[in-house]
Amino acid sequence: MKTRRVRGLSRREKRAWGALLVVSAIGSAAVVWLVSHQLSQSQELARAVASSHQVRLELRSLLSLHQDLEIGQRGFLLTGEPAFLAPYTDARRELEHAFGRLDQTVAPEKMAKLATISRDKLAFSDQTLTLAKAGQREAASSLVANGRGRRLMDDFRTTIATIERSENTLLEERSEAAAAAFSFTRLVVLTVSLVMAALLILAIGVTARAASARAQATARYRKLSARQEAIFRNAHDGMITVNKSGTIEGLNPAIERMTGYTEVELARRDVGLILEVAPDQGRRETFLRRLAQQSQEKIGKAQELQARRKDGSFFPCEVTVSHVSFGETERREAVRGEPSTSETYLAVVRDITDREEVDRMKSEFVSTVSHELRTPLTSIAGSLGLLAGGATGQLSEQAQRLVQIARTNCERLVRLINDILDMEKLEAGSMAMNIRPVELGPFLEEAIRQNHPYAQTLSVDLHLEPFVHPASVYADYDRLMQVMTNLLSNAAKFSPAGQTVEVAVTALDRRWRVGVRDRGAGISEDFQNRVFGKFAQADSADTRLKGGTGLGLSIVREIVTRLGGAVSFESPPDGGTIFYVDIPAAEDGVCHLPNIGRPRVLHVEDDPDVIAIVRAAAKTSFAMSAAHSLHEARAALKHASYDVVILDCGLPDGSGAELIPELRRSNIGIIVFTAQDAQPELENMVEAVLIKSRASLEALVSEVRELLEAQNCKGRGDAP
Amino acid sequence: MIARVLYVDDEPDIREIAVLSLQLDPDLEAKSCSSGVEALKVAQEWLPDIILLDVMMPHMDGPTTLARLREIAVTRAIPVVFVTARAQASESKGFLGLGAQGVIPKPFNPMVLAGEVRKFLA
Fold first, then answer.
1. Each residue of A211-266: pLDDT tens digit?
2. Using a CB-CB distance cutoff of 8 angstroms, which residues of chain A are in contact with residue B111?
3. How far is A431 from A314, CA to CA, in rounded Å?
4. CB proximity B12 to A under 8 Å
5. N or C: less crowded end of chain A, CB within 10 Å?
6. What is the C-alpha to C-alpha distance for residues B35 and A530, in angstroms, rounded to an integer?
7. Distance from CA of A394 to the nearest CA of B (A)
């Protein structure tokens, strides 16, 4: 047996890992977005910072150009040297480019003011230089001295300082925003990381716990598996697991011990190799195929079979088959509509050699004890019978009474012994049944006639209700009479004097029901479920008062069950009890036989004694049925299948030989067993011809056996 | 005509009762013996009209005794009825296959035993 491994994640683990996955995905997306956002912000800030620096540099450069203008102007005004005009000229050329660069980065309103001041300054400087170049240096100096140039220069400086401050403020704002964004990003990344770390820890924790639980479960499974394996391997009974087609899938050492085969030799072989499942069918059908045909009715019920050892010898065993359900796997397959691949059966095989021996010894013991009891009883009953009958002279009234008491109890003892013997035989299945059609009308009249004297001693009348004839049942006449005797004597015993026991027949579906109604006190509720039990009497005092054995109804039930019928009872509201016996109806004189698993032999013979002795000689080897005429034989063959027919030629309605052509067509083996010298051509038409006066019963039984074996061999040979 | 009845049983009490029962009928002459071997001897000498044979007897049981009687010319035709505690009447048919004329189950009714024997003689 293999330990089932626990595979996959538990639901809790899946939840933890799923949450981690979702949070990781969302967190990662957020972090990526934030970081990329932060990067773009940083780049923008860097560009802004670079732009601010550029603006400041350009502003300084602009201021420097204006200072160069101022220096050139003043040097030329003071010296009149044209060389001093070089910086002025250079600065003036550069100014346009410098303003052009600043226009792209600084707000236009600020640049407009600066450009206006610059233009005014240039105009003023140009005006002074023009005067100086024209020789009016004094006019130029006085123009300079009025301070307009200085004021313009101061305004220019102030405006540049204002722009620089404004740029610094903007730069600070951007830096602060960038710092805040960076802090937020850092916070988010930290939070997401922490959450992810927490979830990772949680998932690892859950997984670790699940792994630990799994390890524990696996350990438990292993322990359980080892335990089951030990039970399986050490079981005294053999166990075989087989699939639906009967192939052996596994077995325990007990099977190896019982059969002498090893596990390897039996693995994947048909179960028919070791279990003689259907010997009467030439082993063409496997055990489980037969089970399937029997609508699973054998599942869970012990069956007695023959098991085969490796050396070819057989031993009796009791086999109980149970269906092994693998639950979830089969359910899933059923949901998917797939055929179940895991259908397995467990066959528990018990060697019952000892039990059969015990049964045989028990049977022998019961038989011997009954003989040993009957022998002294014969002397006692005989002596009392002779005394009571006056064989030794007339007894006094008191002596007669005492002898009568002794005789009554002696008879009761004999009945008890007979009932115990019957019960033992019924339970052992060794009571022979001569099943044949029984016409209920004359049968019940005879039953009432036989039991009338006893009922009269109790002042009870027996009455058969009129019913529609014919009503024929399929039964053993003597055994059915035993059933009726038990029911009628019971009914008489439990009815008050002066009352009438009524027997009525009604038709059921394919059965006839015989009801026997007493006029007693009915059956108490607490006794109703024990009515058919052994030694069952409602009141133990009944045994003594009524002189019964307590086995009568138990025997009735056993016999009726073996006849394929059923017993029941009811207590009508108007008093008394009705016992019902339902017996299979014989249609056209014969009815269907239950499948009993043994070879079927039909004995067509008009002499009941011959039928009885052949049946006795056959013992329980075959299921013997009898037909007393050609008509009965044809009806029997129509309603049931037989393996062999034993045929008498001299029948009341013709010669048995007339049946031969139709038997040949059905491939039924034929043995002629007749008192007449058979016609020579018959010998070529049948398997064997035996003359009653010359052949022994053993020879007849042996012929039947050989014929069945030949049929089996043929069946095996024909089998696919 | 008086008919001779030989009763064979190993139980002396039963033999005595059986003989007494049979003698209730003045037309029957009864004799008993205690074993199969003795029965073979008495049957050949006395030539009874019918033999009542117990089934279970030591040394030689009823069926064996019957088979031996059938082998002896003078006893071959003597009808034999088994008297047995081994089987009930309804199951006694198997004994008929052994060649017996009938079976009387034990315990028998001593007051009607002679009548039953008469039926077989008829």
1. 898 899 899 989 998 998 888 888 989 999 888 777 888 899 999 999 999 999 99
2. 385-386, 388-389, 391
3. 25
4. no
5. C
6. 47
7. 15
